[in-house]
Write a structure and sequence with these properties.
This protein has helices spanning about 15-25, 45-50, 65-75, 95-105, 175-180, 195-205, 230-245, 250-275, 275-290, 310-315, 320-325; strands spanning about 1-10, 30-35, 55-60, 80-85, 90, 110-120, 135, 140-145, 145, 150, 160-165, 170-175, 210-220. It is α/β, with parallel strands linked by helices. Helix 7 (about 230-245) runs antiparallel to helix 8 (about 250-275), helix 7 packs parallel to helix 9 (about 275-290) and helix 8 packs antiparallel against helix 9.
């Protein structure tokens, strides 16, 4: 059994594989490299077979999405640690060692992510994870380096190793035993929020998570669904509500869920004003799906931020992680 398996879930990402897979192979000599193909319709599989014979190819028979795709693929991968990596990520020299060394030295931590910077704007943090993720009181995700759509310039302000509430699905290392013991991803999420739900369940089980900025990667972002996609809007809003219903204590849900439905509807109206009616409709569809499909509850959370993000960001005009977390 390999110590580390770098597992890239691919769906029609032939060009990303051409661009970034050589760097993964070059900079990860200690790891087994696996590409799990989610039934792509492009020439991704032919590319792996012809150009990258050292890479293990897992061919799935249908597109299971991010959550289901990884669940299916990781049943076929034997390793102590799984490094889950998006196909649109550029890795750097010695990127793996800080992550594996951290889990080796900290047995109470189940997962760790690197610092994630923007591939196209390399001095700035990237939206999907930045320097580690958190949830505010109402269940809105934010990061060291990214609050809503405000991305901070990386000046080394978050170069300390920090305990976080969630690790980015774009790139994180997790103990294989912890992944399987917790039941893997919730496949019904398909894509978006599934890594936060997984990390919340890890927290519930007494595990801890971290960001180690000594490891750095660059993420393109939006490789499968870009931010203009109403499908992406639907999945984000639907899955966030489902995640809350699964993991929050019941007493809090009594007032939180009605309030969130109102706040999300207001966000949908803003989408309609700023973008298109399709995004507003996507929020409505997400709410309808949520109220008509009940999810099994998991239990209470271990610990997380008490920050009220909307109030801090829009009313107090505090746009950075430090301003929000360290200003009363």
């Amino acid at each position: 059994m390999a110590k580390v398996a770098v597992v890239i879930l691919n769906y029609n990402g032939e060009q990303y594989l051409r661009d970034f897979l050589p760097g993964v192979i070059q900079h990860s000599p200690e790891a087994e490299i696996v590409v799990a193909d989610n039934c792509s319709s492009d020439k991704s599989r032919q590319l792996i077979k012809s150009q990258f014979p050292s890479v293990t190819l897992i061919e799935l028979t249908e597109n299971h999405g991010y959550a289901g795709g990884y669940n299916q693929a990781l049943k076929q991968v034997e390793a102590q640690y799984y490094l889950l990596l998006n196909s649109d990520v550029e890795v750097t020299t010695r990127w793996l060692n800080p992550l594996t060394s951290y889990l080796d030295s900290n047995p109470d931590f189940a997962a760790v992510q690197p610092k994630i910077l923007d591939y196209k704007n390399r001095e700035y943090f990237e939206y999907a994870g930045a320097a580690g993720g958190y949830l505010d009181y109402f269940g809105y995700p934010y990061c060291r380096g990214r609050v809503f759509d405000t991305l901070e310039k990386d000046t080394g302000q978050y170069d300390n190793i920090a305990e976080v509430f969630w690790c980015s699905g774009a790139c994180f290392l997790i103990r294989s035993k912890a992944f399987h013991d917790i039941g893997g991803f919730d496949a019904s999420f398909f894509a978006h929020m599934e890594e936060i739900d997984l990390c919340w369940r890890l927290n519930n089980s007494g595990h801890r998570l971290a960001c180690n900025p000594k490891s750095v990667v660059y993420h393109v972002g939006g490789g499968t669904l870009n931010k203009t996609s109403s499908r992406k809007t639907y999945l984000n809003f639907r899955n966030n509500l489902i995640m809350l219903a699964k993991n929050e204590p019941g007493s809090k849900l009594l007032f939180l869920l009605p309030l969130r439905l109102i706040l999300d509807l207001l966000a949908g109206l803003k989408f309609w004003n700023d973008q298109t009616f399709g995004h507003f409709l996507a929020v409505l569809k997400a709410q309808v799906h949520f109220v008509t499909h009940r999810k099994k509850r998991i239990g209470t959370f271990r610990s997380r931020s008490g920050v009220k993000l909307l109030y801090q960001y829009y009313m107090k005009r505090r746009k950075t992680f430090r301003e929000i977390n360290y200003t009363k």
